[in-house]
Amino acid sequence: MKAFVFNGPGSATWKDVADPRIEEPGDVVVRVDAVTICGTDLHILKGDVPDVPPGTVLGHEAVGEVVEAGPDVRSVRAGDRVLVSCITACGRCRYCRQAAYGQCRGGGGWTLGHLIDGTQAEYARVPHADLSVHPLPGSLPGGDAVLLADIFPTAYEVGVLNGRVRPGETVVVVGAGPIGLAAVATAGLLSPYRIIAVDLAAGRLEAAKHFGADAVALADEDPERLVADLTGGLGADTVIEAVGVPESFELCTRVVRPGGHVANIGVHGKPAVLHLEDLWIKNVTITTGLVDTSSTPTLLRMAAAGRLPTSSMVTHTFPLDAMEEAYEVFSRAADTGALKVVLGSPRHDAVSLRPTEGA
């Protein structure tokens, strides 16, 4: 089969690799019909995730059809259309028993495209299938459903829930890329008083308005003043970091109110300064986290009911074998206007293969 293989920092190639096979009784093999590219994949290519060895098939999100299931799999069978979660879970370890699947110690957690071969391929092996793949509602297109493999549960769990977003409060989302936009959209489900989005790109701030932001600020035009003006000088109740660079994290700690929450989602490749000389007295809670995907079934139901703006997130679509072109477009988002790119196989009409926009 063909797959997108990491060769080392700065290099990956769409090439022939061995077909995956059932290795453990709880595995499934999925024929991939739709995949997307995550900002974390770009971090891997930059060398920010040294755990990924050369030769690994990248990708941790997919929609497809089960073609083979191990003898212990009970939740799906061959022929089922499924969402492949970015997190796999053994279901038996201490963390899985607490639904903290991202910290699984039984061979799960974030493994796909990280510690084992991933989903940016024609076929993928998924371990621990009973908790790691989800049957899809027939009404949900693959190009929409694939966004529920990672960015929507990550934004909701690591950003909105960890950040304790509540009705009537002010939320600031720093970073209006895909994960930040998903945070804006899912924060809106909890009826905050105001959502403020901050980004360096005016185009992404316009997108943030579409996804539910009430106010926006360019990152280089004093967003601290805007937050202060809109909160009577108090600061935001919840601030969500959705970039992964020191400047954005430090901005979050400056605009949060005393007693507020900073929820870090971004993948950081460099140290950020924690200004305890200012924060020690402010009763601020700072959370970090890897998504657990415990919310995925709920989000799938909401997406099937039209309650999540998944379609609006997809700006570019490609055939599956255009992986290198798709990475190029996604990595130059400031120039191409890309939010999420989806690649699909035309065999099962998993995603409408529209002409690429903005590339």
Automatic annotation (TrEMBL):
GO molecular-function term, one example from the UniProt record: metal ion binding
Swiss-Prot/TrEMBL keywords: Metal-binding, Oxidoreductase, Zinc
Matches recorded under Pfam families: ADH_N, ADH_zinc_N
Key word Oxidoreductase present: yes
Domain Enoyl reductase (ER): 8-343
PROSITE patterns per record: ADH_ZINC
CDD domains in the cross-refs: FDH_like_ADH2
Top-level taxon: Bacteria
Required cofactor names: Zn(2+)
InterPro entries: ADH-like_C (IPR013149), ADH-like_N (IPR013154), ADH_Zn_CS (IPR002328), ER (IPR020843), GroES-like_sf (IPR011032), NAD(P)-bd_dom_sf (IPR036291)
Similarity comment: family membership: Belongs to the zinc-containing alcohol dehydrogenase family.
Protein name: Zinc-dependent alcohol dehydrogenase family protein
